[in-house]
Specification:
about 240 residues; alpha+beta; Jelly Rolls; eight-stranded mixed sheet; four-stranded antiparallel sheet; 14 strands; about 30% strand; binds 2-oxoglutaric acid; binds manganese (II) ion; ferrous iron binding; ALKBH2; DNA oxidative demethylase ALKBH2 isoform X2; AlkB-like
């Protein structure tokens, strides 16, 4: 086994190693029209490592300055933005990333195709790539609720390399609204109104957030104290035109 693979041994095999193998797919109803889909074995192990190697080397990663809560800081992960031509500009935390072309990175078109095949009816035209170089790189609590994605964006997130924890937390005003309503909830409703969810996003996995997840929930990839290796994340979104 190469040193690249140390610590990343697959915990389960790929009995049917082809694209779109939805084995292990889980659909989590978050309630109130929000939904998460988790496909742990979206892409076969070796294929995912080929993608990782290419992206780690070829993507023009940057670590920009961003502005959060009135303060400037360096974004705590590398990033790159890809978008189809003619879309409105993306801007977040006071930063407007340069939109690279899909044509410059043919592999990204292949990955996009695989994501579209796994999610019939979906359509993505932009991609935010993130590279977490170790456990101290992270993304803090936020939602991808920029107006250019519309009210119910679908966001498909592929993980390559080191696994990381991904957290979802219901936004506070929703929790207050639910309690204030004073309704008595049945067992199923209580379960679907759980306020936090945690996923371990493994090498080759796909996580999808749908419906009102961005309106009603925050998500984050927290820091990890123990030393970790590099994780590359691809977050596909649809910018409305
Ligand atoms: O790395 C991840 O899994 C999430 C990244 C993310 O939330 C974002 O880029 O908006
Ligand atoms: Mn996000």
């Amino acid at each position: 086994m190469s040193s690249r693979l140390r610590g990343f041994e697959p915990t389960d095999s790929h009995p049917n190693p082809k694209f779109g193998d939805n084995k292990g797919k889980g659909v989590i109803d978050l309630g109130n029209g929000s939904e998460v889909i988790h496909i742990p074995r979206f892409v076969p192990w070796d294929q995912a490592w080929e993608w990782y190697e290419y992206l780690d080397k070829e993507i023009p990663w940057t670590r920009p300055m961003i502005h959060v809560f009135g303060r400037s800081c360096v974004q705590p992960r590398d990033t790159c933005y890809i978008a189809s031509e003619g879309l409105p500009d993306l801007k977040y935390s006071g930063y407007q990333p340069y939109a690279h072309s899909w044509d410059d990175y043919p592999l990204l078109k292949d990955i996009l195709k695989a994501v579209h095949e796994a999610l019939p009816g979906s359509y993505f035209n932009s991609l935010v790539l993130n590279r977490y170089k170790g456990g101290s790189d992270y993304v803090s609590w936020h939602s991808d609720d920029e107006p250019l994605y519309g009210p119910t964006p679908e966001i498909a997130s592929v993980t390559l390399g080191c696994e990381r924890e991904f957290l979802l937390r219901r936004k506070p005003f929703k929790r207050q609204a639910t309690r204030a309503s004073g309704q008595s909830l049945g067992k199923r409703s209580r379960e679907s109104l759980q306020d936090q969810h945690s996923f371990v996003l493994k090498h080759g996995s796909l996580l999808v957030m749908r419906g009102y997840t961005q309106r009603d929930w925050h998500h984050s990839v927290p820091k990890r104290a123990k030393a970790e290796s590099v994780r590359i994340n691809l977050t596909f979104r649809r910018v409305l035109v």
